[in-house]
Amino acid sequence: MQTKSFNAQTGLEVLCYSVFGGLMFYLVRSGKYLLYVTPRMEPYLYFTAIVMGIWAFVGLGRLFRPQHRLHSAHCLVLAIPILLLVLPHSPLSTSDISSNYIGGSNFFGQSTDNLPQKQTPSGSSGSNATTDTPTDTPAGNITAPAEDPSVTVPPEEEYSSDLPGLDVANRKITVANDDFGIWLTELYTNMDQYKGYTVRMTGFVFQDPNIIKLKEDEFIPARLMMSCCVADISPIGLICKYDKASTLKTKSWVTVEGTLFIGQYEYKGVKYDDPQISVTKITAAEAVKGYVYP
Questions:
Q1: Rounded to an integer, what distance in angstroms lies between the CA atom of residue 236 and that of residue 100?
Q2: Which of 195, 154, 222, 208 is nearest to 278 (CA)?
Q3: Rg of the chain's alpha carbons, rounded to an integer?
Q4: N or C: which end of the chain has fewer CB within 10 A?
Q5: What is the largest CA-CA distance in the chain?
């Protein structure tokens, strides 16, 4: 009786399919896939794991079929990603920032033409053109911006009570770390409704002049946002007015509390209304792990 010889090529293929599929399944089940891609990629990763499992199962039937010429170079297509995934690594941090700041219309993928714009009046300098900007007072205190009588604030019953951290009665918004993206969307969409509210949020001090031009009394308590994958991570947050902003340690984590007002932010040469915070209190905070997903 002739002994069947082991097909080394098929064995290597089955091994690569099994390991890659198992690794995809493990990353999704453990949540570690979020280090690389956004949550909306989860079903695609499950699909990949299932396809790899099917290919491995089919390959089992060919393990002992003789093959005179062995080809294994094509297995590198899976072997290299497997190697990269199993090597020890950590999530990107604030020190890895290289992308542009995400704010305003860029955060939503909208055109600035669709947003209410507040152009700089002729004869005013760029540094003093922003309306509703808070006025700094001595001893490091900052007063909240004066209410604009031309702005009609909707009655309290028009606010959504489903938003986490919203206290309409006390006109206060507490932004939990997991709700950072939700509230950024809400504040940019309905900034007039929340004007004058006290906002409390946590982020790292972002003031990189190579990425965004800020004034001496401005900084951003930012988080890192992943739009699609780890390659497009960018800082996001609200511009804060604080007369001691220059003394803050860049990339240190802080919890900011202050009054929301409508300032301006310039994107691609266009100025548009931008929700900003007049800071009244800053405290040190623990670093927040994970990313924000739009």
A1: 9
A2: 195
A3: 26
A4: N
A5: 99
